[in-house]
């Protein structure tokens, strides 16, 4: 199929259509013009567009549907973006027609005239009237909606009316709208022919399991496409008033910890170490470590571990809904896991070879170790023997890190259950060992330690190598205190995460998987930080 362009069309600007707005999408000439270079240029500039690394070939209209209330009509479009590399992605774009010259100057897609009224097609999310319609359609959703666009709401979303709406801010893959300063509606931009895991998990945790440490599920917008498949385009949740995310919180805390090395005149070489993957309660942490890092940091790690365990207990205690019932390890899972990881491993291997020239110092040393020991690392992925594992697999968060957790007073709230961005929608719903999430959080601790060093290196008197050494000591204690609380909570609830050696194997395996996953991003985006996943990989293959 040749690339669509306005240059090849007989119609030339200014584009004028005699159709009513309510019938415009049925006009093939309009659709051709809309899907041309003009839309391509608009989409490429959007933060939510995930195809920036690939060459866009052409855009097709996969589906369109009305989002309306009485006489007020907007269109929801499902755009199929095709790439030269022979794959495609789907995106959700709602559109509106505005005639006011002063409106949406930054967000105009196409200047056109409709029945001799000049105006612009814009992304409807920029229009307050559209945001109000969606809010009211969810609020007034019928119990059983059989139309193409299906609005759903939970029992707790009632007795309110539209007051205000605004953009939440700097998101990458989605667009979130804050309503009445109480509710958040997340519009999914990259979409899949299936229910979004964020919708499924949020609804299950808050609606069915009454898990308090995630934003309460309030409603959703789904469409049934022409193949009869459900597509989630919006998720409405309670807004959690918060003091920011746990990543920013941890960076501030760790800056105090590293400043204390000088302030408290701490000898890094004499800091007591602890057993890797050991379980620690706060009285087990040596006084020198408490004096250096502070008691508060470890108390917060305990709280985070407790909330993580409670999330897994909720996800692992379902016996009716088969998409959430726990299951054991089996051969099918092993084949799926090995194929996925070996493909990813080869991809990262190629990335290292292509980016070696960008690395120096410790990062270069660790990258060369990775290349020299590639067969050993590959073997670690292949040696997954499910017959020796007695624990259970459950639905997990799947992309669990400090940035997915909000801090509210002395507590934590877990969000964003969409899963790993690189994974297919089906892979994101595969039941995994809960320790995969724990490993994700541990990698986030590791990242926060190194990010603190990189961001503040001029402020510390110790050299980078000494700071890395201190950071690795602290990392072991953070993991130990987290596991000390997490495992007690999980075992008290009779969630089966396996025996001691099995847990260590699964943690190491998941940490290696996560670090290899991270490596691709760092090599492509910020090679200076590649040392962080490379050090994580080195820790595992050398211990």
> What's the architecture of the largest domain in CATH terms?
Alpha-Beta Complex
- Oligomer kind: single chain
Helix content: 40-55%
Biggest sheet layout: 7 strands, mixed
- The beta-strand count equals 17
Radius of gyration: 26 Å
Q: What fraction strand?
A: 15-25%
- The stretches of 5 or more residues where confidence is low (pLDDT under 50) are 1-10
Output the structural class. Answer: alpha+beta
Can you identify the CATH superfamily of the largest domain?
Answer: Aminoglycoside phosphotransferase (APH), C-terminal lobe
List keywords for this structure.
543 residues; alpha+beta; Phosphorylase Kinase, domain 1; 4 domains; seven-stranded mixed sheet; six-stranded antiparallel sheet; 15 helices; 41% helix
Descriptive notes:
The protein contains 15 helices and 17 strands. The chain is α+β, with helices and mostly antiparallel strands. The protein has 4 domains: 6-122, no CATH class; 130-238, Phosphorylase Kinase, domain 1; 241-263 and 280-329 and 392-497, Aminoglycoside phosphotransferase (APH), C-terminal lobe (Aminoglycoside 3'-phosphotransferase, Chain: A, domain 2, Alpha-Beta Complex); 332-388 and 499-543, no CATH class. The longest helix is centred in the C-terminal third of the chain and has 29 residues, at 464-492. The chain is globular, with a radius of gyration of 26 Å. Residues 1-10 have low confidence and may be disordered.
Concise structural overview:
This protein has 543 residues and is an alpha+beta fold. It has helices at 28-34, 37-44, 128-139, 197-208, 246-263, 287-293, 295-315, 331-355, 361-372, 374-382, 425-428, 435-456, 464-492, 500-525, 531-541, and strands spanning 15-17, 56-69, 72-83, 88-98, 108-114, 117-123, 149-153, 165-167, 174-179, 183-188, 190-191, 217-224, 230-238, 327-328, 392-393, 405-408, 411-414.
């Amino acid at each position: 199929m040749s690339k669509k362009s306005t240059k090849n069309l007989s119609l030339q600007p200014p584009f004028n259509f005699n159709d009513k707005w309510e019938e415009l999408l049925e006009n093939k000439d309009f659709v051709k013009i809309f899907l041309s270079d003009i839309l391509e240029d608009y989409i490429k500039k959007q933060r939510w567009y995930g195809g920036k690394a690939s060459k866009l070939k052409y855009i097709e209209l996969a589906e369109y549907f009305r989002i309306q209330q009485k006489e007020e009509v907007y269109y929801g479009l499902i755009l199929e973006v095709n790439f030269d590399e022979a794959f495609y992605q789907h995106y959700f774009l709602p559109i509106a027609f505005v005639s006011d010259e002063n409106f949406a100057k930054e967000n105009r897609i196409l200047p056109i005239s409709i029945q001799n009224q000049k105006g612009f097609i814009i992304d409807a999310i920029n229009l307050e009237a559209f945001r109000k319609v969606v809010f009211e359609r969810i609020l007034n959703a019928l119990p059983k909606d059989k139309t193409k666009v299906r609005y759903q709401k939970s029992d707790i979303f009632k007795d309110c009316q539209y007051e205000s709406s605004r953009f939440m801010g700097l998101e990458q893959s989605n667009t979130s709208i804050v309503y009445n300063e109480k509710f958040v509606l997340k519009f999914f931009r990259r979409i899949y022919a299936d229910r979004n895991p964020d919708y499924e998990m949020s609804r299950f945790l808050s609606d069915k399991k009454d898990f308090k440490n995630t934003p309460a599920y309030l409603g959703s917008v789904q469409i049934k496409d022409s193949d009869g498949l459900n597509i989630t385009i919006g998720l409405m949740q309670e807004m959690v008033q918060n003091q920011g995310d746990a990543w920013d919180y941890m960076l501030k805390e760790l800056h105090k910890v590293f400043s204390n090395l000088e302030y408290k005149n701490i000898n890094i070489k004499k800091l007591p170490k602890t057993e890797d993957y050991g379980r620690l309660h706060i009285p087990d942490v040596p006084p020198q470590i408490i004096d250096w890092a502070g008691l508060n940091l470890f108390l917060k790690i305990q709280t985070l571990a407790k909330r993580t365990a409670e999330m897994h207990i909720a996800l692992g205690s379902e016996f009716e809904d088969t998409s959430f019932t726990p299951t054991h390890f089996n051969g099918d899972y092993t084949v799926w896991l090995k194929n996925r990881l070996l493909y990813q491993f080869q991809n990262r291997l190629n990335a290292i070879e292509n980016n070696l020239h960008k690395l120096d110092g410790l990062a270069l040393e660790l990258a060369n170790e990775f290349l020299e020991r590639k067969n050993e690392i590959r073997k670690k992925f292949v040696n997954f023997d499910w017959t020796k594992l007695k624990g259970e697999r459950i639905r997990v968060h799947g992309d669990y890190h400090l940035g997915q957790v909000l801090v509210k007073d002395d507590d934590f709230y877990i969000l964003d259950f969409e899963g790993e961005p690189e994974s297919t929608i089906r892979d994101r719903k595969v039941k995994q060992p809960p320790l995969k999430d724990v490993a994700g959080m541990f990698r986030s601790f590791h990242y926060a330690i190194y990010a603190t060093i990189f961001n503040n290196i001029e402020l510390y008197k110790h050299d980078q190598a000494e700071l890395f050494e201190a950071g690795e000591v602290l990392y072991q204690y953070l993991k130990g205190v987290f596991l000390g609380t997490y495992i007690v909570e999980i075992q008290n609830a009779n969630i089966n995460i396996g025996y001691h050696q099995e847990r260590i194997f699964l943690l190491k395996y998941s940490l290696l998987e996560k670090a290899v996953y991270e490596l691709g991003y760092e090599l492509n985006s910020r090679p200076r930080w590649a040392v962080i996943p490379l050090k994580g990989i080195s820790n595992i293959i050398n211990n």
